[in-house]
Write the structure tokens for this entry.
Amino acid sequence: MLVIVLFLLLLSVYYIYFRRMRKPLYELSESLPNIGYLPIIGHIHWFVGGPEKVLNNIRQLSRLIESSGGISKVWIGSVLYVVPLNPDDVQKILENCLHKDSSYRFLKVWLGNGLFVAPVDQWKVHRKVLLPIFHNRIIEDYIDVFGEQGSVLVERMEEQLGKGDFDVFKYITSCMLDIVFETAMGEKMDVQHNPDTPYLRARNTVISIISMRIFKAWMQPDALFNLTPYSKLQGENIALTHKFTDEVIRKKKKLYEKHGQTSKEGRRDLLELLLDSDMKFTDEELREHIDSITIAGNDTTALVISYALMLLGNHQQEQDKVYLELKNIFGDSKRSPTKNDLNEMKYLERVIKETMRLYTVVPIIGRETQKEIKLTKCTVPAGVGCAILPFVIHRSKQIWGPDANEFNPDRFLPEVSATRHPCAYIPFSYGTRNCIGRHFGMLAMKSILANILRSYRITSCKCDRLKIEILLFPVSGHLISIEKR
């Protein structure tokens, strides 16, 4: 009996201590609207169900927040998030809160301290080293790779002529993997002709498991997750992806040690540039950066290309405008796009930007305050998560007008964009911790889309049903049909 009393007493003391230590969080929570909040369980019920239901719940909750002042709170378990939809607040957070929030710890198991998830102090040092590697001049050396792999993609897609709808993402992601492997590691993998690779299967498995953990509060504690079969499955597949990258690094370092440096002649891949940098990265750091580049740079770019094809397939007038622009640039030539060609694709670039607005493939950005920050309607203390929702902001009628859900590439005419708030449109995030590979992505997307649209006319239906699995996917796939130009 005494033991039970002591246990209850200790529990009570701990609870009082816990509440006192988190007093600023509870005061902030009480100052914000109780939108969708239930006693005890908080907002967990909004994140129950499959990835389509979770996304729909997030959209519904966001509409309630927008109509109630544009800022609210979300409690997931014991973690408090501030959810701002006002571009001014979003800008303050992305400029001042460089620390990724606690949900990114699930990615750290896989990507370690790669640039995408690294702690701020390490990120600042490594970003300075990697910025010159992602300089426009270096990225433009890869334009030939984009063109070569885009040509292979067009040939591979020909097998779908006259066969009705097919999921084009499977073709695009294989093409992007070949591009990313060659530019990041110097490896010609030929995934386009051998798409069912163990690496690709392992990567997709890990992404699905991590996505599940992020949105299911009861799977987040390691102690509970480790009791499930998902823990072993995740570990095995992470090990497989790491093994692949480690082997490439060992081979590249062997050449480096033999010759004293990597070749200075011709195009060099990103791994060679990392080895030649002033910072001497460990093998583990090299793997973390290369894995982050290949994983973050592949599906995001492939998804935008696939959504752009679906949108153009459902908007024939805009597709004709793109084709006319390409016809003016290339005439009847079948050559691959050059740097000058890509610079002339002004309308296609607007199509890509509008695609990223309507189908923001990274729908949520998580940050954590490291110090007190004043927003328009509240002051957020240190240690609070901030959930930025680009997918919601990009479709806000308050920001984009009553036709916010309509496809209109001319929203991105220079004179229109010049008057827009800088955080009304953030597909690559914003601030110093934005996407380092955005120039790479834009050039690759232009090149691949140009090759496809010069060769095929696209037809598709409207894509309304979406789901969230870290990234934004259509429930039924990226279905299009093609016919020869």
Remarks:
- The longest strand covers residues 71-76.
- The two ends are 84 Å apart (CA to CA).
- The mean pLDDT is 90.
- Residues 356 and 480 are 18 Å apart (CA to CA).
